Amino acid sequence: MYSEDYDGANAQERSGEDIYSKPVRAGKRTYFFDVKATKGNDYYLTITESKRRVDSNGHFAYDKHKIFLYKEDFEKFAEGLQEVVDYIKTKCLKGEGADEKFTDVNFEEL
């Protein structure tokens, strides 16, 4: 697994054949879960976060962040993600809001 900016990324794998895509709209962001295949029929997943913004010229632009997840990492990634989601649901979300030890950060202001 690595981010799209990883210098060692294989260009062939970056432009793999699209097999399946699932967009998930969540507020101002859209997440894309894309299954792709290499020429050797190895499957991998790309997870992309896309957020629309207005650039300095007043035109719409999209900030995108992408990770590549390979089949040998699927199970560990899914286990780790589920553990963190369960932790947040049981330990951080009490009643109407998040646990008071966390602060609300608006990343759009940064």
Q: Span between N and C termini?
A: 27 Å
Q: Total helix count? A: 2
Count every beta strand, where a strand is a DSSP E run of 2 or more residues. Answer: 7
Q: Largest sheet, described in full?
A: 5 strands, antiparallel
Instruction: Based on Cα principal axes, name the global outline.
Output: flat
Classification by helices and strands: alpha+beta
Strand content: 35-45%
Enumerate the strands of the largest sheet in spatial order, edge to edge or round the barrel. 1-5-4-3-2
- The overall pLDDT average reads 81
In the predicted model, the low-confidence regions spanning at least 5 consecutive residues are 1-13
Helix content: 10-25%
Roughly how many Å is the radius of gyration?
17 Å
Give the helices and strands as they follow along the chain.
EHEEEEHEE
Q: What oligomeric state do the depicted chains represent?
A: single chain
Please give a structural write-up.
There is one protein chain. The strands form two sheets. A five-stranded antiparallel beta sheet has the order 1-5-4-3-2, with no helix packed on it. The longest helix is centred in the C-terminal third of the chain and has 19 residues, at 74-92. Strand 4 (43-54) and strand 5 form a beta hairpin. With 110 residues, the protein is of the alpha+beta class. It is flat and about 45 Å long. The protein is built from two helices and seven strands. The chain has helices at 11-14, 74-92, and strands spanning 2-3, 17-26, 29-37, 43-54, 60-70, 93-94, 97-98.
